[in-house]
């Protein structure tokens, strides 16, 4: 089994739960267009880019909008979402995440962010987590959405390690596929039913350590 030299983390749903803020902003947009948008509908937007999310929203509502309107609505949704994340505090870091980061640092393991979010830096600053990351790759650095592995491959490259030496942490199916497509091992955060392509799955980081990760990946 290849040595683990680096860990690459998705942001939303792994380090922090910003999904609720995305949901509120998308729901508000859908309501403005005259249809409802449920939490179940929102599951389809996980790990998907902003413009693709809008396309899915339009499919759900059966609406057809020109490109200019789409861009305006995507910007409006982002403005509303930003209002929420600018009020975030370190209390919103998911349980066990910080302890796990500290465990990795103590063992000399490099840490990168691999997120489709264009607001990743703002969120990390609000959470006071920026200093934990040796490399940050977000939606402003990549052009291909997951399951394309671009975001994770860039993270590995910035850290100076081969994909085989990197472990990705993901909560979305498309993200797990992106890790595998990039030749990396993947720990799923969430439900084994949804993330069944991951090397192994845990519900979250509480009580999770480097040793837990190693033993889970070596099964």
Automatic annotation (TrEMBL):
What are the alphabetically sorted keywords of the record?
Carbohydrate metabolism, Isomerase, Magnesium, Metal-binding, Phosphoprotein
The cofactor required is: Mg(2+)
Q: Which residues form the active site?
A: 10 (proton donor/acceptor), 12 (proton donor/acceptor)
Q: Per its UniProt entry, what is the enzyme's top EC class, as one word?
A: isomerase
Site description Important for catalytic activity and assists the phosphoryl transfer reaction to Asp8 by balancing charge and orienting the reacting groups, residues in chain: 115, 146
Q: Where does substrate bind?
A: 10-12, 26, 45-50, 53, 77, 115-119, 146
* Record's catalysed reaction(s): beta-D-glucose 1-phosphate = beta-D-glucose 6-phosphate
Alphabetical list of InterPro entries matching this protein: B-phosphoglucomutase_hydrolase, Beta-PGM, Beta-PGM-like, HAD-like_sf, HAD-SF_hydro_IA, HAD_sf, PGP-like_dom2
Q: What does the entry comment about cofactor binding?
A: Binds 2 magnesium ions per subunit.
Q: What Pfam families does the record point to?
A: Hydrolase
Cite the GO molecular-function annotations of the record: beta-phosphoglucomutase activity; magnesium ion binding
Tell me which residues bind Mg(2+): 10, 12, 170-171
Q: Per its record, how is this protein called by name?
A: Beta-phosphoglucomutase
Organism source for this protein?
Ancylomarina euxinus
Q: Give the gene name.
A: pgmB
